[in-house]
Inverse folding.
């Protein structure tokens, strides 16, 4: 779990220096007993690495008026654990409303949010050290789940390196007469970084 801490430290350093507006919205971390209390209503257990994430920061506080980019990684906000619980309920209701294939009905816990998708961790009835990260979306009325990362550790390592090396970068856009820096990604370099860390998680040494 040490590598998770290292990645979180790198992300903190970058946000504090280069994305101060977003860093200022990061909510204080939660002690483990409080995470336990918030998550006790779930019909599954959250993995240990997710406890470490929320102990670091509990997502962001969304301002009433958004005047700058809130993405923690391109396309996704880091939402508080309370908001994640709301999204769990929302997913359950959507599954009841639509004919969702059983293969997609896992113990989902959304961690990163957009208005059209989630990056969610797969929980378990027993507490595990880690959980797989899936991209969840609705396409043409069909629910789609796609495995993105073997665990949160790998995702955070990718985010940290993308910030450090400029794979993630900001680009100014004019919205309603206001200049806003949007978080962008160099897709080709991102693919290389993601591949490297996924292979490392599988024990493949890269020369």
């Amino acid at each position: 779990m040490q590598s998770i801490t290292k990645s979180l430290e790198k992300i903190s350093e970058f946000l504090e220096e280069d994305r101060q507006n977003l860093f200022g919205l990061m909510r204080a971390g939660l002690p483990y007993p409080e995470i336990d209390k918030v998550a006790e209503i779930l019909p599954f257990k959250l993995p240990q690495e997710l406890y470490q994430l929320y102990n670091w920061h509990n997502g962001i506080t969304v301002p009433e008026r958004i005047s700058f980019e809130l993405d923690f990684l391109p396309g996704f906000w880091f939402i508080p654990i309370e908001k994640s619980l709301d999204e769990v309920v929302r997913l359950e209701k959507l599954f009841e409303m639509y004919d969702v294939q059983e293969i997609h009905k896992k113990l989902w816990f959304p961690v990163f949010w957009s208005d059209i998708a989630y990056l969610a961790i797969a929980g378990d009835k027993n507490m595990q050290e880690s959980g797989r990260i899936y991209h969840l979306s609705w396409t043409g009325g069909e629910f789609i789940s796609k495995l993105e990362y073997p665990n949160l550790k790998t995702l955070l390592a990718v985010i940290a390196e993308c910030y450090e090396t400029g794979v993630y970068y900001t680009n100014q856009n004019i919205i309603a007469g206001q200049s806003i820096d949007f978080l962008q990604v160099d897709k080709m370099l991102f693919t290389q970084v993601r591949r490297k860390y996924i292979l490392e998680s599988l024990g493949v040494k890269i020369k």
About this structure: The two ends are 24 Å apart (CA to CA). Residues 2-150 form a domain with the SMI1/KNR4-like fold (CATH 3.40.1580.10).
